[in-house]
Amino acid sequence: MPASWSLTLRRAKGCRAEREPCSRVRLCYDPRPFSRPEPRSSRFLVDQIVEFVLKANNAERRILSGMRPTGRLHLGHYHGVLRNWVKLQHEFECFFFVADWHALTTDYAESLDIEQSVWDMVIDWLAAGLNPGSATLFIQSRVPEHAELHLLLSMITPLGWLERVPSYKDQQAKLKEKDLTTYGFLGYPLLQSADILVYRAGKVPVGADQVAHVELTREVARRFNFLYGREPGFEDAAELAIGRMGKKSQRLYRDLRKRYLEQGDGEALERARALLDEQQNLSLADRERLTGYLEGGGRLLLPEPDALLTESAKVPGLDGEKMSKSYGNTISLREVPEEVDRKVRTMKTDPARARRTDPGDPEQCPVWSLHKLYSDADTRDWVVEGCTTAGIGCIDCKRPLIESIQQDLAAMRQRARQYEEQPELVKAIIAEGSEHARDQAKETLEVVRSAMGLGYR
Ligand code: TRP
Ligand code: SF4
User: Fold this and answer.
1) Mean pLDDT of the 55-59 span
2) Can you give the pLDDT at residue 271?
């Protein structure tokens, strides 16, 4: 390593932890040495960088997810996505972003509307309980590295992979009124891959409709690692690394690798990975090398993420259909109390209960779906009993529900108010989040460029 190169572990400039106690174990990295304009051998450096990045970031603990800026959010977004994010922010290192470029892939003609939607959505995130002290909140377009990685990955992504993503044909069929024959629309799942890989996130909370995109991300990462994760003499280096393990482990490793490579035995792969984890005397670079060697390819530069499938609570709208802005059947997170009251009171119920004396079946009633989200066990028992025996009327049934929703939303409205009154506060949160996100993304691009042989300056 050239003497002038130092990979320092110190808190990055502007790190929040300087001002607040940091609840997460966070290694902050000062990116300055990387921008030194010095000739250097990119191949030579990549080892150092990889080792460093792997040390500083534990992919398994890092979560990334994004949402298109759709403007004000409603209960469907809350129970389907946000509530889960709020929970995750305390358990993982979370990056949540506004996918504003993604909005352009379908709504390029209405791009002027994006801005208002962005800020409305961020305020709702904060209102719902996302905490900028726990999660990094940012806007995609403020981190241009997403675009650079997207471009570089586009070079290695076969056209067929994108054409086969189910949402490509589905959306074109569904959104007939929109022109979706663009290059950007075809590439949007790859942009999503770049969103994920640029943070080396290990887990991606998504709904079922997005799992195919995470799958594509894994394939792209694998291809990238295969193409660029090789170093000259990789096999020799891997063999040397094997020799650094104990005799028993060496034999086991070879055996498991063979079973995986020859028979595709996934369990053998898992066991071999576990074996590597247990090795005390392997350097991180060797460990990565041997992980890559297991799968026949090079080292793991971009980790393959897993989808974290959100068991999405289906939230019915006022008419019993799925709650959605396009159906006009929503209760928004900042709905005023009178409207919440009115909307739930006029909400559809089981059609069998045409008269007060007709018994009903909660399973046929959208109000019941909301009770499942908002009411305790006693109230729910009371609903089932009262509904099926006509012991209570629908208005009675809705009363405790309205109260719980009001309670929840009152807290959100209150949190939202301070941000509505001080938009500069929202902008500051996003500026800080975007800066932190960008620092992370820059590190990845250093590695990616170097690995591809583009590290020259
Ligand atoms: N495509 C996602 C959606 O439409 C949003 C998104 C963009 C996303 N990039 C992402 C989600 C990365 C998870 C990870 O809902
Ligand atoms: Fe629905 Fe409640 Fe009326 Fe039964 S009593 S139909 S669950 S609103």
Assistant:
1) 59
2) 95
Report the C-alpha gap between 435 and 44 in whole angstroms. Answer: 29
Round to whole Å and give the CA distance between 331 and 416: 16
- Residue 41 is predicted with a pLDDT of 46
In residues, how long is the chain?
Answer: 457
* Beta-sheet strands, E only, within 304-456: 306-309
If you measure from the C-alpha of residue 61 to the centroid of ligand 1, how many angstroms do you get, rounded to a whole number?
A: 19
pLDDT of res. 380? 97
Q: Structural domains in the chain?
A: 16-228+305-312+424-452 (3.40.50.620), 234-294 (no CATH), 325-421 (1.10.240.10)
Residues 207 and 228: beta-carbon distance below 8 Å: no
The CB of 362 under 6 Å from ligand 2? The reply is: yes
Residue 100 CA to ligand 1 centre (angstroms): 10
| pLDDT tens sequence across 137-161 | 999 999 999 999 999 999 999 999 9
The answer to whether the CB of 127 falls within 8 A of the CB of 416 is yes
**Residue 329 CA, ligand 2 centroid: distance in Å:** 18
